[in-house]
Amino acid sequence: MSLRILYDEHSGALSYLLADEAAHEAALVDPRSGDRPVLMALLDEAGLRLRWVLRTHEHHGHDDQPPGEFGRLLHLGAPVVQGARREGVCSVADGERLPLGAGFVQVLHTPGHTAHCQSYLWQDRMFCGDLLTADACPWQPRPALPAALWDSVQQRIFTLPDETLLFAGHERRARAVTTVLEQRRWSPHFAGLTRDGFFARVGPKPLHRRT
């Protein structure tokens, strides 16, 4: 089993290649179509067959960045799994296990950053997009559904074992990976906050009327 991380310096976006070399199977988490030559080279070099393209979220109105992004992801040659439904998407149930080599990737519905966010648990590693980096996403620096985000993090992420590794959708302060224990204790958005305190920090900013 192996993991490769791809980083886009312009946007700070992170993509992941999960592989079971013994079974010659792989999955991509949040790939960018612009990285297709590199991704295909990595797969070919290791003799891997791409089983799944897993997307943690899709931004309504901003997904085609550049135009045609989703269509090019379909051309990677594997089912595209994401929470937001559209033509070409392979929709899966919450908790469903997608086979990958000798193991599986479990799909967890974790709305909040966007309405249809999903996270993917592979062994002791959770790929949770921008759930925990609530202000690092350039396309949506504030969560779409703060209440759902709080519940997703508290009930679906922080209930995992302390040592579970968490992989973000965008880097934060040059870091791509953290742990459940670290985020539960020191997250700038969740640690030590009440639900109301969280809403005050990340919710919509009030409009200031001119006098």
From TrEMBL:
Record flagged with keyword Hydrolase: yes
Lineage: Bacteria, Pseudomonadati, Pseudomonadota, Betaproteobacteria, Burkholderiales
UniProt GO MF annotations: hydrolase activity; sulfur dioxygenase activity
Superkingdom of source: Bacteria
UniProt keyword list: Hydrolase
Any one GO biological process: hydrogen sulfide metabolic process
Identification of the protein by name: Beta-lactamase hydrolase-like protein
PANTHER family: PERSULFIDE DIOXYGENASE ETHE1 (PTHR43084), PERSULFIDE DIOXYGENASE ETHE1, MITOCHONDRIAL (PTHR43084:SF1)
E.C. numbers: 3.-.-.-
Domain Metallo-beta-lactamase residue range list: 12-170
